[in-house]
Amino acid sequence: MATPSAAQPLVAAAAPTTAAASVVASSPTDVTDPATVQEHAATLVRRVRVTYGLLLVIGFIIGELMQNNVVQWMTHWKIADAACGTPECIAAQGVYRVSFALFLFFLIHYVMSSSWNLCMSASQRVAFNSSYILVKVALLIPVFVICFLIPNDFFVVFAWLSVVLSCLFLIGQQIVLLEFAYSWSDSWSTKGDDGDNKFYVGLLVCTVVMNLASLTFIGLMYHWFAADTVCQLSQAMVTITLIAGIVFTALSIYSPTGSVLPSATVFLYTTWTCFSALTSSPPGQCNSMSSTDSGTWQTVIGAVFSCVSLVYCSVNAATSRDAFILDSDEATTQTEEEAESSCFSFFHGQMMLGSCYLAMLLTNWTVTGSDKMAQLVGTTAGAQWAKFGSELTCIAFYVWTLVAPILFPSRFAKQ
Q1: Cα radius of gyration rounded to whole Å, the chain
Q2: How far apart are CA 88 and CA 76, in angstroms?
Q3: Fewest C-beta atoms under 10 Å: which of 42, 197, 200, 244?
Q4: At what angle do helices 381-407 and 260-279 cross, to 10 degrees?
Q5: Integer CA distances (angstroms), 332 to 24, 127, 175, 335, 336, in order
Q6: What is the pLDDT of residue 310?
Q7: Is the distance from CB of 238 to CB of 222 less than 8 angstroms?
Q8: Rounded to whole angstroms, how far apart are CA atoms 62 and 84?
């Protein structure tokens, strides 16, 4: 079974960040028990983060509405020009504006929460995040309206920035995924070692179910996307996913810090990412799913799933700050207020990336709207390679966590 050191070549073991005692202390509740203080602090932090996370839900809904013909008619007066007259371009430009308004909102919060903000103390930075939330959300509305007064060329540049930052966002989600998989395995293994055998059974069942689901999904992808001999690219993508799954599963057994549960988790994730990449391929004989009669409900389900996964990944990564800390002394040198302020700063940084990913998610990684910067990222090839590249990055990360203890055993001997 895995030990906490398994994820350390890339990620650190997660630890709850509940240093909001300063905010809780200012509440009218008289609490003296430290454990109770921490519990109230954790509840406050969670509530604030969920509230901000709901902004991405609202942004996703507005972005979807921007692609509706009625809403496009309302925004046509400002977005449409000689270089952007098609419904697809107007929709994309509308989504860029939604994304930019959220990006700017979280950027301001990031700057105000950062330790670079020497004009405010740590307790003031924490209070800024937890106070007047509804007022700040209301101020976001005029910012969104003002975005329609900005020329399209500006948002084309922002769209290219979103392409880069979205890649960073996906990398961050992969780090969180690996941290979660290792922590899950370590937690259940520890409980099993303590004599509760049902956790061993749970590890086995979850591993088998996820591996069977991945293999079944791969078989379906061969049928849906790679059945024809001309679909060589699709065949290569599915085959690489299958071979990679077999390789890192074998490595997890051989590696001294490996575990089959994280391997099954990563295998399922990469299989899903491969499927998502293949569904972005052009309609035709290499994408049979695009020709089904159930396009409407597939679109609705896809939109709901994308919205939930976007918000969950953004908030989850933002609450897993410890997985990104390289210096273990950082947490021990901060006061509670400083640590809480840093957590909020990291949170808003992740939400900034999530806002950019929102633009790419809704436009299918499309950059359009200007003659000066042509549409170099298409609605098919760009999205397909962005998703498959994300899968390859995740595989590389996970393989490194397995290979590093083998290549450098002395570094992990004491862990």
Answers
A1: 23
A2: 12
A3: 197
A4: 160
A5: 21, 22, 23, 8, 10
A6: 60
A7: yes
A8: 20
Please list the residues that pair with 84 across neighbouring strands.
Answer: 81
Q: Are 228 and 285 in contact (CB under 8 A)?
A: yes
Question: Which amino acid, 247?
Answer: V
Divide the 415 residues of the chain into consecutive groups of 10 and give the mean pLDDT of each group: 46 38 42 48 65 85 80 72 80 92 93 80 80 87 90 91 89 84 90 88 94 95 88 93 95 88 94 87 74 49 60 58 52 62 80 89 82 52 83 93 87 62
Tokens encoding 22: 């300063």
The DSSP annotation for 137-153 comes to: HHHHHHHHHHGGGS-HH
**Conformational region of residue 196, where left means phi above 0, alpha means psi within -120 to 50, and beta covers everything else:** beta
What are 290's two structure tokens?
């695009």
DSSP string for residues in 37-76 = HHHHHHHHHHHHHHHHHHHHHHHHHHHHHTTSHHHHHHHH
- Contact call for residues 147 and 100 (beta carbons, < 8 A): yes
Let me know: does 59 contact 99? Beta carbons within 8 Å.
Answer: yes
